[in-house]
Write a structure and sequence with these properties.
By secondary structure, the chain is an alpha+beta fold. The protein contains 13 helices and 12 strands. It has 3 domains: 87 residues, Winged helix-like DNA-binding domain superfamily/Winged helix DNA-binding domain (Arc Repressor Mutant, subunit A); 152 residues, Beta-Lactamase; 89 residues, Heat-inducible transcription repressor hrca homolog, domain 3 (Enolase-like, domain 1), CATH 3.30.390. Helix 1 crosses helix 3, helix 5 runs parallel beside helix 13 and helix 6 runs antiparallel to helix 13.
Amino acid sequence: MLKYKGENIMELDDRKKKILALVVENYIESAEPVGSKQIADNYENDISPATIRNEMKQLEEIGFLEQPHISAGRVPSTLGYRYYVDNLMSNNTLSMVDIDYINNNIVSYGSVEKTLEHAADVVSKLLNLPAVLNIKTTDVVENVKILKISEKILLIILMSNSGNVKDVIVQITDSLPETRMDELSRLLNKNLKGTPLENLSLALNDVVKKELSKFSNILNEMEHIVRKELDEPKNNMKGNMESLLALPEFSNTNEIKKFLNVVNTKEIINEVLNKIDKDDISVIIGNENNQMLLKDYSLISLDFTATDTTSATLGIVSPKRVDYKKAVSTLKAVNDRLKKIFGKEKEDKDGARKED
């Protein structure tokens, strides 16, 4: 016996496996309930529609298929999709066009976050689905630079130990002489170096209290911007929603509103993504995530460790009817590409350290 969510489920014989796989794949392609004749036309061996109809009825009784209407064919249940993904789905080889697109468009963009953001764009475009990117970092401040854009506007550049760069534009009330800019820069480097980026706003508050009260107006403004822009969870949604909303699942306004509510509720998506296995590809289908808001959708994601200080979860949000083979294969190819990029960057940095 197999187990699903802690409960025993029936193992399927070869005929039922074949029929279930055909139902899933036909439904993914057509978005229409699948009938016994349709399966018979695709079944390799000579088998009657009546026999297939009986097998489909049994698959429905044990929870692998559902019948949306009495006179309609069957569609996969969440359990049916799960069994298909875990046991029946063949390894799908991406076309050379898709592989070339991944290799040519996912390159190093100078920072870990920008590279990962471009990877999310690539996934979204290849699958025509919104991609979610959740970046988790333990980066610390390595260096602070201050540039004067105009008399009353400063650009404060925060560089992390992993090479990430954060820009903070601060508007000041009075012009700041070069000597005071240099003083502020030295004091910020002295007080902020080694501070985790996620704790930066708290550190700035402490800096003001300790010894930089004369720069309090600038630092308070900087702290406000940092808290707003840098301390928020780095969660981005990528993708053109128009192609997704053209799917049959979104033929009515209520379904569109439900899905838009899902993709805009980042906290719930984050909660689900944070529970997936590390350094692996995860497929969470329907109510497997125990979030009612996501019961009609699937999350297919890749957990990736980019550097010693930065990891990310990159995935897609879709209706349960999705091409699981292509989605998983795409994330595997993206995973391989990112490993090459960040592995090469690590080799270059290690080599530079040895030369030093």
